[in-house]
Design goal:
It is a single chain. The model has no long low-confidence stretch (mean pLDDT 87). The chain is 0% helix and 48% strand. The strands form three sheets. Strands 1, 2, 3, 5, 8, 10 and 13 form a seven-stranded antiparallel sheet that branches. The chain has 228 residues and is mainly beta. The two termini are 14 Å apart.
């Protein structure tokens, strides 16, 4: 469940690389799936699967890993599809059995716009069950059209305890484009967007070294995907 505005949490750090996706996820159990690589979002490559005639509730591709995520709280990754999808049609699975045979975590891939990378974030439902993960996979809940599906740079994040509050101001410039056709009525279009924000809390462990990666996820509701 996402952290709601005004409640504790929402700041994550100490990124652990789960899978770099620099090689093909060759393990898969379904006919009609062809794993490969293509140009990635991070690094050189991303893991890709091309589907032909794959139905609902199918594992599209999987890969062997060896990770302990019991001390972590969330996972972030990049996803891309040649199709426009809705939330929950695709899942990123984590499992302590091979080829994600009985997933211990089923992370929601949010709605994707065709051929556009999306930075995905989801909380782990049961981190204690993720102490001996040996496989990661991409799963198709619905019978989607044939296409390509890409995953890149999967990382685990730990939540910073003791965060008391946070605020964010997200704004868009209004650019005036009034001309003679507007007959004296001002006309505007949306310009560049940007944000500023703050968070405060109690010190949690040793200070981070300069250059450490910090990811700030600010949930605006308990609905997956509704966050900054």
């Amino acid at each position: 469940m996402a952290h709601i505005s005004g409640k504790n949490g929402g700041v994550y750090t100490n990124a652990l690389l789960v899978e770099d996706c620099e090689d093909a996820w060759n393990e898969h159990t379904e006919s009609g799936c062809t794993p490969s690589t293509t140009t990635g979002k991070v690094g050189t490559y991303c893991a890709r699967v091309t589907t032909v005639g794959v139905g609902a509730d199918k594992l599209l591709m999987s890969e062997v890993i060896s990770k302990d995520l019991s001390a972590y709280d969330a996972v972030v990754w990049y996803a891309r599809s040649s199709l426009t999808t809705t939330a929950t049609q695709l899942k990123l699975l984590l499992d302590d059995t091979g080829e994600c045979a009985s997933a211990v975590e089923s992370l929601v891939v949010p709605a994707l716009t065709a051929d556009t990378w999306k930075y995905c974030f989801d909380l782990l439902a049961a981190p204690a069950s993720c102490s001996a993960l040996i496989s990661i996979g991409l799963y198709q809940d619905e019978d989607l059209d044939d296409g390509t599906f890409d995953i890149d740079d999967v990382k685990a994040l730990a939540e910073v305890d003791g965060i008391k509050s946070w605020t964010i101001d997200y704004v868009a410039d209004a650019l005036e484009v009034t001309d003679f056709v507007d007959a004296g009525v001002r006309d505007y279009v949306a310009g560049c967007t940007g944000w500023t924000g703050t968070f405060e809390g109690y010190k949690d462990g040793a200070p981070l070294a300069i250059g450490s990666e910090v990811i700030l996820a600010l949930g605006e509701s308990s609905t997956n995907g509704q966050y900054f």
